[in-house]
């Protein structure tokens, strides 16, 4: 029995894991959980009352009514497109179209490239490099390619060398973040754009609000998940005779 149990894949149960943290920290912890899951490939069962969080984290969502009755078990996109009943509609809440943004990851959209610069580098060389590549953004990165600051062209033209200061309030989103996360980050920072970082926080590119708006338009046109199975409590479960010779397994 012990050997059989050891062979089974472990399941991690998380009950409201991010309910007590602020929104920005919650977003980063969710992204980190997704990164960990991609590396370890473990099954995670997450209990939450936040539907946006369920859509972001879950490959499948089970919506429970009172009495632990499963009212819908589906892929997130199917639940958003075809809620089983009024209870699920109320649980989803208003703005279902915007919630479609939670289905798309930042890595799935085209990012805008930016010229990168190192602290202490000659500004004229940096601006010349930006002009040659046709990029309007210059991002200062450290030796590991992690963003330090995001100065405007006008700010750079006022100095001779690239500044070394780190901006602690940079609008950052990860490649595993959702477009909804990216939009939240843009609104909080009032920049209309955000820097995208990948593995080990290495700079990957810039995402603009226009990209998010285009995704909203596309989400209104069509909703995927044609092959998602339905999971409603629409009938009785078949009884199984477990007595010897009764056909039970």
From TrEMBL:
Supply the InterPro entries for this chain. Answer: ABC_osmolyte_uptake_ATP-bind (IPR051921), CBS_dom_sf (IPR046342), P-loop_NTPase (IPR027417)
Coiled-coil intervals, chain numbering: none
Return the annotated region ranges for Disordered: 227-249
Among PANTHER family, the record links this protein to: GLYCINE BETAINE/PROLINE BETAINE TRANSPORT SYSTEM ATP-BINDING PROTEIN PROV (PTHR43869), GLYCINE BETAINE_PROLINE BETAINE TRANSPORT SYSTEM ATP-BINDING PROTEIN PROV (PTHR43869:SF1)
Question: In its UniProt entry, what is this protein called?
Answer: CBS domain-containing protein
In its UniProt entry, the species of origin is given as Kocuria flava
């Amino acid at each position: 029995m012990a050997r059989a149990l050891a062979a089974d894949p472990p399941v991690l149960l998380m009950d409201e894991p991010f309910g007590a943290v602020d929104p920005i920290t919650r977003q980063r912890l969710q992204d980190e959980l997704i990164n960990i899951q991609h590396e370890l490939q473990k099954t995670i069962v997450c209990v939450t009352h936040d539907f946006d969080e369920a859509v972001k984290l879950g490959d499948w969502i089970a919506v429970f009514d009172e009495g632990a009755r499963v009212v819908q078990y589906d892929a997130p996109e199917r639940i958003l497109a075809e809620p089983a009943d009024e209870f699920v509609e109320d649980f989803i809440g208003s703005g279902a179209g915007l919630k479609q943004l939670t289905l798309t990851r930042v890595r799935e959209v085209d990012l805008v490239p930016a010229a990168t610069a190192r602290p202490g580098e000659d500004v004229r060389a940096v601006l010349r490099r930006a002009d040659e590549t046709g990029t309007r953004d210059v991002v200062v990165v450290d030796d590991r390619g992690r963003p330090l600051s995001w100065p405007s062209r006008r700010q750079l033209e006022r100095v001779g060398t690239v500044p070394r200061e780190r901006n602690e309030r940079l609008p950052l989103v990860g490649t595993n973040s959702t477009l909804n996360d990216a939009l939240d980050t843009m609104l909080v920072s009032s920049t209309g754009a955000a820097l995208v970082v990948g593995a080990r926080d290495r700079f990957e590119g810039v995402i603009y609000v226009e990209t998010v708006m285009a995704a909203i338009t596309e989400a209104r046109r069509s909703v995927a998940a044609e092959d998602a199975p339905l999971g409603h409590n629409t009938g009785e479960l078949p009884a199984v005779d477990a007595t010897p010779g009764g056909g039970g397994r």
